Amino acid sequence: MRRTRTAVAVLTLLLGLLGAVPGQAAAAVRSGAGGGGVPLLAYYYQWFQPSSWQRAKTDYPQLGRYSSDDTGVMRTHIAWAKSAGINGFIVSWKSTPVNNRRLRLLMSVAATEDFKITIIYQGLDFQRHPLPAAKVAADFAYFAKSFADSPVLFRLDGKPLTVFSGTWAYTHAEVASVTRPVRGRLLVLNTEKNERGYERLADVTDGDAYYWSSVNPDTNPRHATKLDAMGRAVHAHHGFWVAPFAPGFDARMVGGTKEVPRKNGATLRAEYTAAVGSHPDVLGLISWNEFSENSYVEPSVADGRRYLDVLRELRGGAAAGRTATLANAAPTTHRHAVARIAYWPNLLRLAGFAAVLVAGVTLLARRRAAGGPGRLGRSTERRTS
Questions:
Q1: In this model, does residue 344 exceed pLDDT 80?
Q2: Are residues 325 and 219 in the same domain?
Q3: Are 260 and 249 spatial neighbours (Cβ–Cβ below 8 Å)?
Q4: Whose C-alpha in 5, 6, 21, 284 is 20 to 30 A from the C-alpha of 54?
């Protein structure tokens, strides 16, 4: 009993010297510093013309009713995003002259700002009907040929990460016809909405990026459980899991019926916590600038920079973003290495702490054997006498 209490006393003393409290070190290792070490990408839309802002908007950007061709706007977007711990944008894309021009412009700006870019391919048209699989396959082949070698692309396991949106509208054979020619150069994630959907396509895709912007964490008690189950299913197939979270949602002006209140950041906090808890390889913020569905965090006229401030707090400031960018800079040699990189400093601290603890207990034991237990030992003995 005396030895046990002595060890506890030494543990408490050392924790005090290290500025920690019991359980903190292990918790930091498990959580990756609250998710700050997990790369965070925000969904980004490049479809805006000045006239676009006249339709179905209840709020507007602080930068004004901009065009997605404006490189000054792109540069400001990237600076703001980085300040909140965002590591890159997932750009809504399919191959058209306008989209290709804008993607190249954004990539050229990102290259000068140490910022990452990838794409989510829009496989459904405006009426939510699937595009012909041959068109999708041709566009992915074009992306692989024209963009895949760019160092600005976000990579996992050395390959650029891409997302194929709307996969639930395609057969297994159609998805395979899209992914098979390019998987040697690209990672292609599906966007299935449940475990069964993911399992259907697990062998022809490289993971899942679930785009779930309309969940209300206050009314859906299974929200966190579902994300965790999907993450487990993806990882069981050695795939990559992009966990979604959003600050709120309201698509009623574009034909939707659902509203998820922002609650001054409480919704963003709750959804971020659930996303981090699903052990993602990447966090997917919905969104940077989806003003029609009101899921944006871009500074706006009505909300100012409120949601970037909340995100910055959640990410531990811009330093967390720099850590994740550094983790992404070099190709990984095995899956999930990006997340593990962020854990190493905590693991080393924990290992060093354990060594100090063992040395301290050993020293106390030797001093007691020599007849000189020291102040801590004597105090412990008085309490147990």
A1: no
A2: yes
A3: yes
A4: 284
Q: Among the listed ranges 166-170, 196-200, 303-307, 358-362, which one has the minimum average pLDDT value?
A: 358-362
Q: What is the pLDDT of residue 288?
A: 98
Handedness of CA 92, 98, 104, 108 (dihedral sign): negative
The number of folded domains in the chain is 2
Considering only CA atoms, which of 319, 282, 283 is closest in space to residue 156?
282
Residue 329 binned pLDDT confidence (cut-offs 50, 70, 90):
very low
| Residues 295 and 372 grouped into a single domain | no
Establish if 340 belongs to a structural domain. no
Q: Are residues 122 and 216 in the same domain?
A: yes
Distances (CA, A) of 270 to 137, 349, 363, 377: 37, 29, 47, 46
Amino acid type, 183? R
Nearest-angstrom CA–CA distance, 41 and 242:
9
**Do 116 and 17 belong together in one domain?**
no
Length of the chain: 385
